Amino acid sequence: SFCKKDDHNKENLFNSINYDVAAKKRKKDLLNNKAKTQYFHQEKWIYVHKGSTKERHGYCTLGEAFNRLDFSSAILDSRRFNYVVRLLELIAKSQLTSLSGIAQKNYMNILEKVVQKVLEDQQNIRLIRELLQTLYTSLCTLVQRVGKSVLVGNINMWVHRMESILHWQQQLNNIQITRPAFKGTTFTDLPLCLQLNIMQRLSDGRDLVSLGQVAPDLQVLSEDRLLWKKLCQYHFTDRQIRKRLILSDKGQLDWKKMYFKLIRCYPRKEQYGDTLQLCRHCHILSWKGTDHPCTANNPETCSTSLSPQEFINLFRF
């Protein structure tokens, strides 16, 4: 009877310990899922190392760089906003599974800030729609492969994140852009040469099409052959253009149709107001204009600008 009583007490003690551990784990998971800020230090620059040396051990990963560089503040800068959005899109396409759990959570937090910014200022709506659609499509593919270690975290957490993406998409679709109360000079009041000059600054053909739908006069300007020719020559090489020639009914080159055909076949030229830069001398990665402790005689000549794709390629081993 003593042995049975002792075993009974041990069983109760074991069940009590398991209950306490499970309760603490649920509480910890709940706090982690509700956390909006991560416990990592945001730095102005980081040292990118790809191997172990006597001075440094280990290597820098994409997730580590994404966590340590201050992307949360970068999205508030209009010069860096498009750069960060493009980087988020490229990560969503192919690099999401390479991020650590905290980097994935940081990714979603930054994405939420991007959406909130667009909802407030009502700018870059189409750009964020495309980003959310790319991310949702990638997650639909990854969630189907649960059990093969492709995603970090519980499946329910990712389902909740996908629901958040659908909610953000609905919010963006419901945006009603209001006409400003300002009654001064408008775009259509400008001389035609100035209107055409401004339209030449647009780097996306879809913006030209949307602008042409505002007024009949703008529709005529948006069909200007020279406008579409310059747009094609800006984004694509002469060789690429020669491979996709399209003639109109009048026997002339249809630059507008050629542009939309070219963007389906080749990547467009990317240009950003501000980019991340890598110092080739000391292997330090930082935003343009950020001073870092460089030991080179001419630090300006050692820095090279990185496109979002080049930033990702930097961490491929």
Automatic annotation (TrEMBL):
- Do you know which InterPro entries this protein is assigned to? F-box-like_dom_sf (IPR036047), FBX25/32 (IPR040394)
Q: Does the keyword Membrane apply?
A: no
Q: Where in the cell is it found?
A: Cytoplasm; Nucleus
Identify the domain of life.
Eukaryota
Q: How does it assemble?
A: Part of the SCF (SKP1-CUL1-F-box) E3 ubiquitin-protein ligase complex SCF(FBXO32) formed of CUL1, SKP1, RBX1 and FBXO32.
Q: Sorted alphabetically, which keywords does the UniProt record give?
A: Cytoplasm, Nucleus, Ubl conjugation pathway
Could you state one GO cellular component term attached to this entry?
Answer: nucleus
Q: Write the protein's name.
A: F-box only protein 32
Physiological role: Substrate recognition component of a SCF (SKP1-CUL1-F-box protein) E3 ubiquitin-protein ligase complex which mediates the ubiquitination and subsequent proteasomal degradation of target proteins. Probably recognizes and binds to phosphorylated target proteins during skeletal muscle atrophy. Recognizes TERF1.
Gene from which the chain derives: Fbxo32
Pathway the protein takes part in: Protein modification; protein ubiquitination
One BP term from GO: protein ubiquitination
